[in-house]
Specification:
By secondary structure, the chain is α/β, with parallel strands linked by helices. Helices cover 44% and strands 15% of the residues. The longest helix has 20 residues, at 231-250.
Length: 495
């Protein structure tokens, strides 16, 4: 059955997967969503015997129906190769009563690699399938991890250019250094004077500027996105939940058909939406536990039915979650509104105008799969310390938010089902915060001295992604105000 993709903001859009990947964002401002959620067509027992690449194919073939088997398998093989430091791709580690799904073994040591390693291959294949001759310009806002993962994926890829905007003072030192040392003539990294929401809103405004789009087409360019607003980012994320379930089943940790809970630290809502899609494909899952940091707009939404971004923006030690406008939530809102594009559009316009919206009671009743929780800075730091002291396991600040929320969830609900926690970044990406939490951070130490200290402490080798930026020259020094973002893009493209 062919999968078509609709816009979350109107009725008249129906396009193929390859076209949705190329466009990134619908012309009406909506996000692309599949017209149905397909059921897994392999048994759980069969999936449990497969390696990561095989599972990825079985999941993605159901969504990317206009890709041939050869095309899709080629994209998968090129994505999940020696760039990852483990053949397993996404290992599952047990510590303290939960299973940590380590999604940070890729080239930039963050979970974004799981999707952004394959997106360039999907996009170039899609361009060839649709006879696109214009150069594809990837425009991306990042709260820290997407930027580097996208840069690593698209750097040097023929027929593409990539521009990444990040909040100048809103990412960790390691995250920033990873981005500003990026090589590749087709790459541009820009620090904006503002937060991630400012960067994300600026990118969306550029996408929706119709005159600019026409001008670019005349000059031989077209925009696309590497953010999780691109459906080509979201679909590969479904795969690792299916793989995690299969791993637990293969290792005898669960019985076939036994439901598991999943805890996901999230700001933009894409990673937990992928888990929701996996559940709707037939993967046995109980609660989808949405973990927020002190920017707890999602927590408040699940508890009140009102999404309200009118609040103080908090800079935390888990900066990739410092987000008040959760773009991917729109896909869930569209679904619980009965796939009603007009109703969804009205809610998104309220968010844009008044900064908030309220869903109906019927829509709230459709959110039963989710549980919202949040952890303070102190609670997240205490969780890093607890896992290290009790189990010798070191986690990063974002995973700590999820782990702390999980402890609260069990205490609150007494639900002791087997639980997978999405471990979204290597602790080496947030070394100072992790070492401070453990009690080994010293203010005068350089970030790389702390890296070496963490390695000695944990017994885990310093990842290549960190080693290679120790002495790498800084190649990107551009900064701008939000109002200048379009001008920066024009300058880079020479238009």
């Amino acid at each position: 059955m062919e999968m078509r993709y609709n816009s979350t903001r109107s009725k008249g859009v129906s396009i193929k997967a390859s076209q949705a990947i190329l466009q990134g964002l619908s012309a009406d401002g909506g996000l692309f969503v599949p017209d149905h959620i397909p059921a897994l067509d392999k048994s759980l027992r069969e999936l449990a015997q497969m390696d990561y690449r095989q599972v990825a194919y079985e999941v993605m073939k159901l969504f990317l129906t206009d890709f041939t088997e050869e095309e899709l398998k080629s994209c998968i093989e090129r994505a999940y190769d020696e760039k990852f430091d483990t053949e397993t791709i996404a290992p599952l580690k047990k510590a303290g009563g939960a299973y940590y799904l380590e999604l940070f073994h890729g080239p930039t040591i963050a979970f974004k690699d799981m999707a952004l390693s394959i997106l360039p291959h999907l996009m170039i294949t899609a361009a060839q399938k649709n006879h696109v001759e214009r150069e594809i310009v990837i425009l991306t806002a990042t709260s820290g991890d997407t930027g580097k993962a996208a840069l690593a994926g698209f750097a040097g890829v023929k027929g593409t250019r990539i521009v990444v905007f990040y909040p100048k003072d809103g990412v960790s030192a390691i995250q920033e250094r990873q981005m500003v040392t990026q090589r590749g003539e087709n790459t541009l990294v820009v620090g904006i004077h503002g937060n991630f929401d400012d960067a994300q809103s600026g990118v969306k405004q550029i996408f929706s500027h119709k005159e600019l789009t026409k001008e670019m087409e005349q000059k031989g360019f077209q925009f696309s996105s590497a953010n999780s607003i691109n459906i080509g980012r979201l679909i590969p994320q479904i795969c690792y939940y299916v793989y995690a379930y299969g791993t637990l089943l293969k290792e005898g940790q669960i019985a076939e058909g036994e439901a598991i809970n999943v805890v996901v630290p999230t700001g933009n809502f894409g990673n937990i939406l992928a888990a929701f899609y996996a559940k709707n494909m037939g993967l046995p899952m109980g609660k989808l536990i949405c973990a927020s940091n002190e920017n707890k707009v999602l927590y408040d939404f699940f508890h009140t039915g009102t999404y309200d971004r009118n609040r103080e923006f908090v800079l935390t030690t888990s900066p990739s979650m410092d987000i008040l406008i959760s773009s991917n939530l729109e896909r869930l809102i569209y679904r619980i509104a009965g796939n009603d594009g007009e109703q969804n559009r009205a809610l998104m316009e309220a968010l844009s105008g008044q900064g908030k919206y309220e869903i109906t009671q019927d829509m709230r009743d459709a959110l039963g799969d989710f549980y919202g929780g949040y952890a303070s800075e102190e609670e997240a730091a205490a969780e890093i310390r607890r896992l290290y002291q009790d189990y010798g396991y070191v986690i990063d600040t974002h995973t700590a938010v999820a782990s702390a929320v999980y402890q609260k969830y069990v205490e609150d609900t007494k639900d002791t089902r087997k639980t997978v926690i999405a471990s979204t970044a290597s602790p080496y990406k947030f070394t100072r915060s992790v070492m401070d939490a453990i009690g080994r951070g010293e203010e005068e130490k350089s970030d790389f001295a702390l890296v070496d200290g963490l390695s000695a402490l944990s017994g885990v080798k310093v990842p290549q992604a960190v080693e290679e930026i120790r002495t790498a020259p800084i190649l990107h020094k551009k900064q701008c105000d939000v109002a200048q973002m379009e001008a920066v893009v024009r300058e880079f493209l020479g238009i």
